[in-house]
Amino acid sequence: MGRIRILLADDHAVLRTGLRMLIGSQRDLEVVGEASDGDEAVRKAAALRPDVALIDISMPGSGGIKAIERIRQAAPATRVLVLTMHDLPAYLRAALTAGASGYVVKRAADSDLLAAIRDVHRGRTVLDPALAARVVQGGLRRRGTAGPGPTTPLSQREQEVLELVAQGYTNQQIADHLGLSVKTVETYRARLVEKLGLQSRAELVRYALDSGLFGGEVGPTP
Known about the structure:
Blueprint: E1 4-9, H1 13-24, E2 29-35, H2 38-48, E3 52-55, H3 64-74, E4 79-84, H4 89-98, E5 102-105, H5 110-121, E6 126-127, H6 129-142, H7 156-166, H8 171-178, H9 182-196, H10 201-210
Parallel strand pairs: 1-2, 1-3, 3-4, 4-5, 5-6
Helix pairs in contact: 2-3, 7-9, 7-10, 8-9
């Protein structure tokens, strides 16, 4: 049986070097390419057709979530495994929705990461246990309520509000920009917190950037 061919995508060169050494020490694994941003990851995946793409979410360019979607389109046979510092349920749900087959947090042991690569290649779905438990618990809390479920996608208006929140607009400015009342904007923000499980503006900003809502660029400051 041939080696499992792996593409590394992370904007930190030192981390990529460490991963290459770790993976290279395994007889059944090999690194066939590297990328430092989301756009390059898509190009490399389309050209190399790796078995597994090991992707970080927080990367320059179109963002890691968008990169996952585009890799799945450009190289359908490539399985995507997310390796990230983000241990928030919203990122896990977004990655899975985009087409990822696994989600591992960077604090995981080397042996866990190697096992995840092999499992994803075999067609299994691999999730960080602690984070997956939080997602399940969140779903159980919501079950039976009238509120949206944890996997409910954002509406177009919710995405617009999220983008403006991330750009630093106040509720009043968002209301003026979108032609809504301040109360309605507050309702949309509450829905974002409920759907994404993100509490602070900093978390919303990071999520908006990593999801590619800005297309790699932050809009003008009001």
